[in-house]
Design brief:
150 residues; elongated
Length: 150
């Protein structure tokens, strides 16, 4: 018999620590992410600066937080901003976003589809059409496969 089998030191090594397929839930400080600033967005909407309101509402998404209340407030604010756009201005607004912005917008659009309100589905479908034209099918795939939701 070998000398090493009598020793119990090898049993103290955590082999799961070295497994590359082990899932670890990442917490990236989501506690300070309360979502977009409602007062800033409302002020921009009152001034008629729709593009500024869209960029402001997409600036601080509550992706890393587990606070569902913050996510619902952000979703309602985004739907409010999207509803305030004229149909002719949607294409220019979506075109002003970068790829990450279009993906985030798609996340909010799909989140809005989950809980439709009075006229939100028609508005969200218009936005979805324009966002799909800019982001392509890859944007939809990235949104549907993303682990972190808004």
């Amino acid at each position: 018999m070998s000398k090493n089998t009598e020793s119990g030191r090898f049993r103290k090594v955590d082999v799961d620590e070295y497994d590359e397929n082990k899932f670890v839930d990442e917490e990236d400080g989501g506690e300070n992410q309360g979502g977009p600033d409602e007062t800033e967005v409302d002020a921009l909407l009152r001034q008629g600066n729709m593009n500024g309101a869209l960029h402001a509402v997409l600036k601080n998404p509550p992706i890393n937080t587990k606070n569902q209340n913050a996510k619902e407030r952000a979703e309602l604010l985004v739907v409010k901003v999207l509803s305030s756009f004229k149909s002719s201005d949607i294409e220019k607004a979506v075109g002003s976003l970068d790829r990450a912005g279009v993906d985030l917008l798609m996340k909010y659009i799909y989140r809005g589809f989950e809980k439709p309100s009075d006229n939100s589905s028609a508005v969200l479908l218009q936005w979805h059409e324009k966002a799909l034209a800019v982001g392509g099918v890859g944007s939809i795939v990235r949104v549907l496969t993303a682990r972190k939701t808004v």
